[in-house]
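Lay summary. Proteins are chains of building blocks that fold into shapes, and those shapes determine what they do. In this project we predict the shape from the chain. Here is one chain we studied, written as its sequence of building blocks.
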Amino acid sequence: MKRVRIGIVGASGYTGVELLRLALSHPHLEVTFVAAEKAAGKRLGALWPGLLGTSLAELTVEAFETTEPAAIAKRCDALFLALPHGVAGRVARGLLDAGLVVVDLGADFRLRDAAVYARAYGLQHPDPDLLPQAVYGLVELERERLRSARLIACPGCYPTAVALAAAPLVGLPDYDGFLVADGLSGISGAGKTPGPRNLFCEVAESAAAYGVGGTHRHVPEIEQTLGTTVAFTPHLVPMSRGMIATVTARFKHAPSAAMIRDRYAEAYGHEPMIVLRSEAPSTLDVRGTNRAHLYVVVDEARAVVTAVAAIDNLVKGASGQAIQALNVAFGLPETAGLPLVPLAP
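And here is the predicted shape, written in a compact code that computers can read:
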């Protein structure tokens, strides 16, 4: 059985521990290196007690910044970077030169244009010459390019949900080139570092829009992925995980419901991680899974098509998608190690 040795940098965060959880049940992955600067020196079982009793509990968390890429490459075939923007761009070249496949769960390699990155993230890209080498990790749209990829840019959670919902609509006859997208995300999307967006008293029993008026940094990523103009508004809602994206596309003349159904069936009917629904999905339908549940409906009176996508923001929106892309890059079964059935309740 083919074995791929992986390292996880940023193991103290939500996406890091989700990578650990998924890797434990993956038949081809072996975790051989874990790093988190503030938690360096601790055992994984002390950092995440839920890992006690597993093969990972006794692994020691290391300091990534002081470990040479060549030393990591002796122990790993691929490295997942679950780090703040600006860090992966600074270290990726050395890791690639050492022979590692790099999967960046951050934002540093998602955007093809360094100037767009600078506007969105407020800093100059650390290594713009690497941008052309990065392959966007949305498997359903980039599967062929991901085969044998060495630098994988894992998409953001909102762009994943919006792009999967809307991609079959873009380019249809009479589509007018404009999408309206609303995203609802669980609080884990705000990360683990304490702040106003993830303190219990600030978010419990409350929902809030943010990044309004095209200011959210995922807007350029969504527009780049879909090749169309998007008015996007994200919201935080009081649940720990899960995401809903509702996308409305305008048409000059309303398309037929049959044509739209056929379009989605052609795009996604063969996809193992996409479920096409006859009613709007909920986040509980995908909780803990790497699947996206999609529903699409035509409003003939207004000549608009509305598509709804539900994903788990930590799995299909982050760690699960990263593993799905790695599976493709290494020629492993695409669904290996990825849960398909949701947690309930």
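What the prediction tells us: Residues 315-329 form the longest helix (15 residues).
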